[in-house]
Amino acid sequence: MTDQRPLLRAMFDAAVAAAHPDSILAAHLPPLPPGRIICLAAGKGAAAMAAAAERHYLDALGLASSRLIGIATTRHGHRVPTRAIEVIEAGHPMPDAEGLRGAEASLRLAESATADDLLLVLLSGGGSANWILPAEDITLAQKQQTTRALLRSGAPIGEVNTVRKHLSRIKGGRLARAGARAAGIVTLAISDVPRDEPSAIASGPTVPDPTTLADARALVARYALDIDDAVRAALHDPRNESCKPGDPAFARARFDIIARPRQSLDAAIQVAREAGYAIVDLGADLEGEARDVAAAHAKLARDARAAGKRLAILSGGELTVTVRGLGRGGPNQEYALALAMHLKDLPDVAALAADTDGADGGAGNATDPAGALIDAQTFARMDSLKLDPAAALADNDATAFFEATGDLLVTGPTLTNVNDIRVILV
């Protein structure tokens, strides 16, 4: 039997490369302003985006380093060397004090912009956690408690960010309001959200927000979130309403998406097609409970196997996990674990599920797994070790399961983030 793991990894690598700041950012950077470029970046690709901007302005255009300032707030372990732009490593998915420092300093720099300055905002997935600046009367600890409740609820990322935007002094258009005196605000974003909704990417710090305080309160009720009384009061305070269309803050603001999940999924599809596979493209915007989506995809694989088809089933998007157990994992590992449960009697099926940022769930460490792979080797180890995928799934303990089988995919930080890539090869 052919080892399909190199092909699976090549498809993942192609998806990441299609969205890497080193190859995509420079073509989108705006021309030089009369004054300074104030570069504010947030997210898992923030430092890489800042470094790419430095190469363009300082090296290619010869801009004096005194005219380029800024702060890139990124996840711990995602630092790259920069010259003019400070890098701050902060918590993700749980926000921390360094994220607070980065957000406060970024807001102050935005407020310092003059009519000659350009405010250049570079966003990537993870920016919502990295830029943590709680609304008045909310502490960092209370915001962390709310984040923890949101992450455990199983709510899709758009709903999570609806709540976050109404508990922040930088999200929901407020960064644009702070930098409204600048000659212009240009935001370049790597999308990590389904349907590439601008207000959901890093919780939309420079764009109008269509969601409301009432929406946020409804989500707290729907998911029965355990939140502090101060947070509940903040969601009733009209001062915490986000910026809406027509706000003067957006008069000179431009927003462009420079990498999308669709582009990365297409890059993976091309690799599969060149390897001789027919393609089932399930789209770049899938949402839903990871184990349920895996069950549906496993049926597609079984049907293809029964029909004797050589098929690659691909999807993107961002799945969720409603945490009920005490184990470790993330949505991609849980998806792979559920696939293993449904496909364990099909030795000629292989699959990969991974987050393009290089971290699927985990504790916020650079060594967290990106996801997992499964194939005949996995099924054989399950048998020899007497591992029960159903029991591991019940405890949300995919990481321990795949540690035992040796099937965790560990890539380290990729310095970009365009959601998940899932592939099943039949």
Describe it for me?
The longest helix has 17 residues, at 290-306. α12 links the parallel β7 and β8 (311-315). α7 packs across α9, α12 runs parallel beside α13 and α13 packs across α16 (398-405). This protein has 426 residues and is of the alpha/beta class. It folds into two domains: 5-13 and 262-425, glycerate kinase, domain 1, CATH 3.40.1480.10; 22-133 and 168-208 and 243-259, Rossmann fold (3-Layer(aba) Sandwich), CATH 3.40.50. The mean pLDDT is 96. The protein has 16 helices and twelve strands. It has helices at 5-17, 21-24, 46-60, 97-111, 127-130, 140-153, 157-165, 174-178, 213-222, 229-234, 261-274, 290-306, 331-343, 376-385, 389-394, 398-405; strands at 37-42, 68-75, 86-90, 118-123, 184-190, 253-259, 278-281, 311-315, 350-355, 371-374, 408-409, 420-425. The relative contact order is 0.14. The chain has a six-stranded parallel sheet with strand order 3-2-1-4-5-6, sandwiched between helices. One of its GO terms (cellular component) is cytoplasm. GO terms for molecular function: glycerate kinase activity. This is Glycerate 2-kinase.
Task: Walk me through the topology.
Layout: H1 5-17, H2 21-24, E1 37-42, H3 46-60, E2 68-75, E3 86-90, H4 97-111, E4 118-123, H5 127-130, H6 140-153, H7 157-165, H8 174-178, E5 184-190, H9 213-222, H10 229-234, E6 253-259, H11 261-274, E7 278-281, H12 290-306, E8 311-315, H13 331-343, E9 350-355, E10 371-374, H14 376-385, H15 389-394, H16 398-405, E11 408-409, E12 420-425
Helix pairs in contact: 1-11, 7-9, 12-13, 13-16
